[in-house]
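User: I'm curious whether this sequence folds into something compact or stays loose and floppy. Could you predict its structure so I can see for myself?
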Amino acid sequence: MEYQRLFLYTALGGLLLLLWMTWQQDYHRPPEVAQAPGVQQSRPLAQPVAPDVPAETEAGGEARLIRVETDLMTAEISTVGGDVRSGRLHRYGISIDDPTPIALLQSDGTRFYIAQSGLEAQDAAAPGVQAVFRAEQDSYQLPEGADQLTVTLNWVDESGIAVEKRYTFHRDSYVIDLEQRVHNHSVQPWQGFQYVQLRRTKPEEKRSFMFGAHSYTGGVVHGPDWRYKKISFDEMANRTLKGEPQRDLQGGWLAMLQHYFVSAWVPPQDATYRYYARAVDGQYILGASSPWQLAQPGESVVFTGKLYTGPKDQARLAAVAPDLELTVDYGKLSIISKPLFWLLSKINALVGNWGWAIVLLTLLIKVVFYKLSEASYRSMARMRKVQPQMQALRERYGDDRQRLNQELMELYKREKINPLGGCLPILIQIPVFIALYWVLLESVELRHADWILWYRDLSSPDPYFVLPILMGASMLLQQRLNPAPLDPIQQRVMTILPIVFTVFFVFFPAGLVLYWVTNNVLSIGQQWLITSRIERSEKAKA
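Assistant: Here's the prediction. I'll summarize afterward.
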C-alpha cells in the first residue's frame, strides 16, 4: 500500500476514534438492569423518603439555614435533617466574565443537589431526614488564625435519646468532617446505624456532535476490591449498582461527578459500609449505611465520616481517601495522561503560565521522539526524491494495480525506502493527542487558565479561531514537504484534509490546539532540516 494512502487512513482513523469516544460519552447508555428478586438484606439500608419539599413545609416553619464561611467556601446547613444544602467555592467563578462563586451544592429551586446524613434505629428514636435540629447560631465564620471551625446541631427525643451532630470545617480544605454522637439517656438499649448520601436532580444533557467541553456526570462507587464503578442515573433509577441491589465495601467511598468538580462521602476506612442507589420522583440518590452500633442505657456511640465538596484537585483528593483522585477521569489512556499532567504541572510551576507550559511540554515530547521522527522524515525525504520515478511507473502500469504495486515495492527496495516509515510520527501522536485532550478537558487547574492576548481560558475554544487556522496552515505546509500522492483522488482528499481538521479544531480546547500547532511547527522545522541535509548529501555525492 502506498505511504500516502496509509497516512490518510491513519489520520482519519484517529479522528474516527475521537468521534467514537465522544459518541459513547454523549449518546451511549448502558442497558437497564432489573433489580435481582429475592435478595435478603442482613441489615436495613437508609431508605429514601418522599422527595424534598421546601424546608419550611417539612418542619412546619421550624427550619432555617445555618451559614458557614471559611477561606475556601460558603456552606449552608439546614436544621431539617442537618443536610448540607449549599456549597459555594470562593476560588472558582461561574465563568471568565462572571466571578460569582460557583455553587456545587445547591437547593434554591434552579437545581437540587445536597449532601445528606442521618441515623436510623431499630424500635427506637433517631434523627432521620426530617428530624429538626437546634443550632446555637445562624451563622459561623472561620476566625483569623484558626485552623478549624465546628458547627454543632442538637436533637433530643422525649424518650431520652439525644444526638449531637457536628460538622468541622478546616482552613485551606474542602473537607467537612462529620460526627454524630448518640447519648442514650433512656432505660432501653439503642441500636442504630448511620447513612450518608448524595441526592440530586439529573442535570440537563448537553449533546453535541463535536467535542463538547464536558465529561462524565454521574455517580461513582469505589473500594479496594470493587474499583471505580461508574453508576449512571439510569442505574440509580433501577436501584442497582452494576446490576446488584447493594454492595458491601470496606475502605470505600462514593461520589457524584461533574465537569471539574466532585462531591464525595468517605466513610471510616476501617469499617464495612453498605452502598446503595435509589431514585425518588426525579431525585437520584447514591449512599452508604454503616454497621449497627449498640448503646446501652447511659452509654454513647459515635458515627463519623468525611464529606469532600470541591474541585477535582488531584493532590487534595489523594490526601482525603485512597484513590479518590481517580475521580479526575482521564479514561482509557490514563497511563499516558497522568504522566503528561504531572510533567505539565511541574513545567507550569517553573514558568508560571499554563500556555507556555504546553509549548515546553510539546518541545520535550519532540525531543524524546527525535530519533524516531528523524528516521521517518528521512524516509519521506527519500520518497520525495523518487517521486518522478513513481509517477513514471504509474503512467506505465496505471491500469494494472498489481504490477504497479510490485514495481513500486522493487523501487522502494532498490532505494532502501521504508514506505511505512513516514507514518510513525502520526501513530505516536494519536495516543498522546487523545491523552492530552483528556488532560486539558478534565484538569481543573487548566479551567480559566490564561496564556497571552485574548487566550483567557485554555480549556475553552479559541474565540477568534486564530489557533485552528494556524493549525490548518501548518498542516498544509507539512503536506508540501511530503511526497505528493500519485492518485489524483488522494491528492484532492489530502488537499481538503487540512480544511476538515481546521473545522474540527475550532471546537477543541485552545490548549489542545496550541499543542498541535506547536507540534506541527517543530515538525516542519525538523523535517526541513533533515530534508536539506539529505539533498546536500546527494549533491555532494553527485
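Summary: The chain has 13 helices and 20 strands. The two ends are 31 Å apart (CA to CA).
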